[in-house]
Amino acid sequence: MNFIDEVKIHVEAGNGGNGACSFLRLKFMPFGGPDGGDGGRGGSVLLQADENINTLVDYRYVSNYKAKDGEKGHGRNCTGESGIDLVLRVPVGTIVYDDDTGELITDLAEPEQKTCVAKGGAGGVGNARFKSSINRSPRRTIPGQPGERRYLRLELKVLADVGLVGLPNAGKSTLIRALSAARPKVADYPFTTLYPCLGVVRVGQFHSFVIADLPGLIEGASAGAGLGIRFLKHVARTQLLFHVVDITPVDGSDPVANAKVIAQELEKFSPDLVEKERWLILNKIDLLLPDEAKQRCDAIVQKLHWCGKVFCVSGLSKQGINELAQAAMNYLNGKKQESL
After folding, report:
1. Measured in whole angstroms, how far is the alpha carbon of residue 277 from the centre of its chain?
2. Domain total for the chain?
3. Residue 30's pLDDT is what?
4. Handedness of CA 281, 285, 286, 291 (dihedral sign)
5. Is 1 part of any domain?
6. Which end of the chain is more exposed for a tag (fewer CB within 10 A), N or C?
């Protein structure tokens, strides 16, 4: 399935039905009074967050949506039937903007959260409402009001507690496979991960958190290079970042320089991301002898002047994985308690 995280759609609410012009006509009442009913309300267009949907791909191919019009009024003071509301289901984490004005309409961050994005037109008024002592046979009616029309931009930001960031081939996909039941593609070439992959990390019997494997960043990502800015926005919602660094890059590059590239791109995209809790995950320690791996990790931490938490792990052999998962769970539980 294709991962589509931004689309533009046009929504149109239903028009209100026209009011009816009618006069009562019965066998023994050939000249009855006005009995034209009101028109029905036009259907509205609503967006609803659905946790069973994880992409906006359906809206890439069909971009125009219209709710039902209200029916016109009828004789005998019968109001026309209202138009049925059109409910469009989108992934949890979808942000909705008015594409013409750039106004933020809503952030659908909770399952089943619903919002109206185009209100149906009011029903018209039938001639029965205009009857008075002066005008006993009014022919005046009011037509239904048109429904709202809007061009919307839907933007999906992945909802995860922890996000993995790092250069391509840093071992992020292997790491998420070790931590969770997620099975992203793993191969020895850049940009194996082409879209965010979510996994649930279970810690013990009753605790878990969601982790997101994001496509690898390269220098210039904040300006659109590589897979670029498109996926950096997904980092914004996470509570914790795992900054994954390959301590033995196959291309012979410097792990310290590689780590600095990611930090710089995060800061360029949003200074707030630099302030977010970020742990240094030194990966692929299984490729070196234990003493050599420890020396390499210590040297990287020293050169980076890293003051935060550091974990030396191997996604392939799962060394240090349980300790990392438990530490992340403890941190997230602590954040949850702080917010209570």
Report:
1. 22
2. 2
3. 78
4. negative
5. no
6. C
For residue 129, CA distances in Å to 31, 34, 41, 315 come to: 18, 8, 17, 74
Task: Answer yes or no: pTM beyond 0.85.
Answer: no
Nearest to 315 by CA among 192, 196, 215, 172: 172
Of 125, 156, 187, the residue at which a domain comes to its end is 156
CA nearest neighbour of 215 among 200, 230, 236:
230
CATH code at position 45 = 2.70.210.12
* pLDDT 10s digits, 303-313: 999 999 999 99
Q: Do 109 and 180 have their domain in common?
A: no
Residue range(s) defining the domain that contains residue 54: 6-156
Asked whether residue 199 falls in the same domain as residue 303, the answer is yes
**Any idea which residue has 């046009």 for tokens?**
10
